[in-house]
Amino acid sequence: MIPREILKKIRQIELRTNRIVTETLAGQYHSVFKGQGMNFDEVREYQPGDDVRAIDWNVTARMNHPFIKKFVEERELTLMLVVDVSGSGLFGSRDQSKRELAAEIASVLAFSAIRNNDKVGLILFSDEVEKYIPPRKGRSHVLRVIREVLFFEPKRRGTDLNVALEFLLRVQSHKAIAVVVSDFLGSSALPRKPGEMRARSNMLLLESLAQASFTMLRQANRKHDLVAVQVTDPRELELPELGRLIFQDAETGEIVEVNTGDARKRAAFAERQAKSQEQLARLFRKAGIDSIQLRTDQPYGVTLGRFFETREKRRLRG
């Protein structure tokens, strides 16, 4: 039996995200993601202006005047949520952790999907695939997905996006919408000199992404419609002025002391993080992947809505 407090938390997320789906997204999911192809609908008489390539020659021969095949877009999709459950996701400097934000984003997308009669599947990963839930339809299935994103306890704390993408390519043979929800933080990079903080906070998997993971991202995006959702916390982008603080790496356990009272160190940290964000965005663009950054200290509904609008406009232009 699921504990009452867990059910309450899941119910709260369901109510909050369903409101966002209804009031903010309002059908955008349906319009921005295409089906897997075109399905035959019916045969009708040819009309001036119709594409001659659609003529059904067998029916035309029988009826002695031209008929064409009419197709409709295949609307049923599969949404695969690929969610990072590594140790760094437990961090949150405000009321919400990155893991909780990831669960809400997964919930918004999953409820949007089932309103469109689509299937939803889940891959939870750290530096290995921790759990796989095959795609299914229905509210109860989506509630299970939310529960797993929120409360699943991974065996490992590291991050390896390659492993997750390789698994996705193996288990999902047909084209799907694949949304990777992660902070895109890699291994720790703590200082070699006392008082200096190397860029653990936003190494952002840049070394591995620029090499093997970039290849996997591009390969996964060729087969699926891949979208990257980065969840981040303001304290990973800028340090507060709070004097000397002790930081512990959530994935490796390494500890470092940082003097946040030093304005130069705060400025250097913020500049380094901004550059890392730019590099990550550039890498996604190079791989042809749509990406969006969401923060634990900012409402995500409007940002997500704008992302869908931009994507829809680009699709219509194409």
| Number of spatially distinct domains | 2
Biggest sheet layout: 6 strands, mixed
Number of strands: 10
Uncertain runs are 187-204
Radius of gyration: 23 Å
Reading off the top of the CATH hierarchy, the class of the largest domain is best stated as Alpha Beta
Strand order of the largest sheet: 5-4-3-6-7-10
Morphology: elongated
Mean pLDDT: 83
Fraction of helical residues: 40-55%
N- and C-termini, Cα separation? 50 Å
The CATH topology of the largest domain comes to: Rossmann fold
Broad structural category: alpha/beta
Along the chain, the helix and strand elements come as HHEHEEHEEHHEHEEEHEH
CATH architecture designation of the largest domain: 3-Layer(aba) Sandwich
- Assembly type: single chain
Proportion of beta-strand residues: 15-25%
Q: Please, what is the CATH homologous superfamily of the largest domain?
A: von Willebrand factor, type A domain
Question: What would you note in describing this structure?
Answer:
The chain is of the alpha/beta class and 318 residues long. It has two domains: 4-31 and 75-317, Rossmann fold, CATH 3.40.50; 38-73, no CATH class. 42% of the residues lie in helices and 21% in strands. Helix 1 crosses helix 5, helix 1 crosses helix 9 and helix 4 (98-115) runs antiparallel to helix 5 (139-151). The longest helix has 24 residues, at 263-286. The chain is elongated.
